[in-house]
Amino acid sequence: MSEILGSLALGTFASGSRAFAGLVRGDRVLELDAHAAALGLTAPITTRDLLADWDRVLPLLEALDGPTIGLSDLRVLPPVRPRQILQSGANYRTHVIDLAVAHRGPDDSEEQVRAATAAMMDARIANGTPYLFIGLPSAIAGPHDDLVLPGYSDRHDWELELAAVIGAPAYRVDRDRALRHVAAYTIVNDITTRDLVFRRDMPEIGTDWYRSKNAPGFLPLGPWLVPAAHVPDPMNLRVTLTLNGDVMQDESTKDMIFDVAAVVAAASQITPLHPGDLVLTGSPAGNGMHHGRLLRDGDVMTGAITGLGTQRVRCVAESAA
């Protein structure tokens, strides 16, 4: 396990067929069902139960002590099962420029595209709002689960992201208050099938995020929920993804166009956000389209964000029917 910010993190684990929420300290896990009474909750406890009463529960979690289990003896599951996933696209300046260059027309020079895209983002920052869309909870997988690459395409790509985890319900909150509703942070790899992003049969419709992002396992999540109180500045974290040991993404969250607070506030304007919901904040530069190298059978992606742990996902080709 990589270092976590603060003294603890939360996760969900399996021992055999039994799943449970646990408190992570170092390489040891404290099973929380045994401490339900101390937490004022009823077993079995889920991380979503904790997030629903976060301000009261967090100091109690920090004070817990007792017998622990070695992390190596457990399977790490997705740390939370959200009701809703709100995703932010085109939210890192360098990434947006790289995508625009990759998709430029044959008559457009790279310099022209870079300049035009930079001007567009400056206008968005001044007058626009985050670009949001919906993800399916059924796409969530554990942080160490294999990713089955669907056989209908050979253009699957990675996008490592910081995700804000909602605690207190949020509905139409403004940016100044938005972070009060964030209980924790975690890591998500937003896998994308590039040739399904745009509908060739209906180009006027634009992007098709349902088909391109929601296959089973396309949202490896976790490993941990790190309390927001232990993350001094979510806008100063390093997002890093390696492919078979080679660095592909390595960028600071400082490169976001709209910061975490702005993205959470925008997500709350249309739909109420509930405890455990995820708000993804976009992915930095360095995806496969930029490198000209998309995912293949046997690839291993290792993703980390400062102090939030590490996920390791192996890619497996879909078996022929």
From TrEMBL:
The keyword ATP-binding does not apply. Residues 85-314 form the Fumarylacetoacetase-like C-terminal domain. InterPro entries: FAH, Fumarylacetoacetase-like_C, Fumarylacetoacetase_C_sf. It comes from the Bacteria. The keyword S-adenosyl-L-methionine does not apply. Transmembrane segments: none annotated. Keywords: Metal-binding. Belongs to the FAH family. This is 2-keto-4-pentenoate hydratase/2-oxohepta-3-ene-1,7-dioic acid hydratase in catechol pathway. It comes from Catenuloplanes nepalensis.
